[in-house]
Write a structure and sequence with these properties.
alpha/beta; disordered N terminus; eight-stranded mixed sheet; Rossmann fold; 10 helices
Amino acid sequence: MNQVMSKGGVNFSRHVNYVRHDPACGSPVILTHGLAASLHDWDDLLPELSESGFAGYALDLLGHGESHKPVHHHEYTFDSVFEHYSAWIDSLEISDPMILVGHSLGGGLSLHYALRHPERVRALVLVNPFYDIHQLPPILRAAFRHQLINTTLIERTPYRFFRWMVDVTSFNYNTKSGEAHVLPERIRYQTALDYKRAASGIYNIPRSLPNLTSDLSRIQQPTLLIWGQRDQTLASESFPQISSLLPNVVTSHAMPICGHVPHQCHPENFNPLVMKFLKEL
């Protein structure tokens, strides 16, 4: 099957950078990354989607990657990111109901979109979804409580510091497989690069995240939930909780070795779970 891959921006005021793997007549799959990441989160999954006949679309969210980066920090809210994301989806002019795949903040955006436009969503794949500010550790909740105005320190932080941080947090001290890191070298490189090139204003987004807990019972779409049991960014117990609150979780799967990014930690285990779910819809 022919595969078309395109990259570009849509024709509205806030530029969106995205990639598309679009086989003819493929069922649409929208892939959305988390905070301080980029569309490269899905570099391993997009080709598999295309090979199986799905049309995969992945974007850089507002303030991330090569998408529009507002100058003023007050423009970075959950609502503004959702508006940017939703307008991009509209611009794709997709007529069929979509499968939404979202990691962390991208999971929260996917849930919010399903609540706003249930008729346009066929199914959900949630990866360590961020749906309630209380999922964060107390120290991060305190840091995000107030709007960040002076972000000079973040903006001046060199790549090598972000790389050191990624290397340290991805090091597996208890590995039995002989691997030094859970995350491969190319993933650690890209993760640090995404941190460095993201606008500093994005760290204001979590403070405006709506608590979706009370609305989850309204989401009827078939859902696959995957999470890393070693997540130190979001409370690991919050993932079994959302599994119990969503009415139609077809499968939930915990990946014991992985942390916050199971889709990048071991894609050879993650991708088959996703593909099996999609093919059985």
